[in-house]
Design a protein that fits this description.
Layout lengths: L1 H25 L2 E2 H10 L6 H13 L3 E8 L2 E9 L1 H26 L10
Antiparallel strand pairs: 1-3, 2-3
C-alpha cells in the first residue's frame, strides 16, 4: 500500500501547479483562498508546499501579485496570471486533454487497442 500512497502523492504534486493556474484563471486569489479552493476540490495542500510553488511560478513569469488591504488583518498578496502564465495554462490545458484521453482509452478500451508488433 505504501507504493500506492507514494504514487498518489506524486500524481497530486504533478497536478498542483496546473490546478493553481486553473484557479487563478478566473480571479485573483491570495494564498489562503487558493488553499481553501483546492480543499473544496479535495486537493489538500499546506502553506509549506504552496508558498515555494507560488514563488517559483512568479520567478518563471507566470504569476504576478499585488498587495491589497484587508479588513481582517495585514495586507494580503493577491496572485494573478501574467500573459505568459495564460499562454502556459493554455498549453497545459491541451496537455491535460491529451493525457485524460489517453487514460480514458486505457481504462475503457484497452482490449480494443491493436496488439503491439512483436
Amino acid at each position: 500500500m505504501a507504493n500506492v500512497d507514494n504514487t498518489r502523492s506524486q500524481m497530486r504534486k504533478g497536478m498542483l501547479e496546473y490546478c493553481i493556474l486553473l484557479l487563478l484563471r478566473h480571479q485573483p486569489l491570495y494564498a489562503n483562498d487558493i488553499i481553501g479552493q483546492l480543499k473544496k476540490a479535495e486537493m489538500i495542500v499546506v502553506e509549506g508546499t504552496l508558498y515555494p510553488l507560488l514563488n517559483r511560478l512568479k520567478k518563471d513569469g507566470w504569476l504576478k501579485y499585488e498587495w491589497q488591504e484587508s479588513t481582517q488583518g495585514p495586507p494580503r498578496k493577491y496572485y494573478t496570471l501574467t500573459e505568459e502564465g495564460e499562454e502556459a495554462l493554455q498549453q497545459l490545458d491541451a496537455s491535460w486533454s491529451e493525457l485524460a484521453t489517453t487514460v480514458r482509452i486505457l481504462q475503457n478500451n484497452f482490449s480494443a487497442l491493436p496488439a503491439p508488433n512483436q
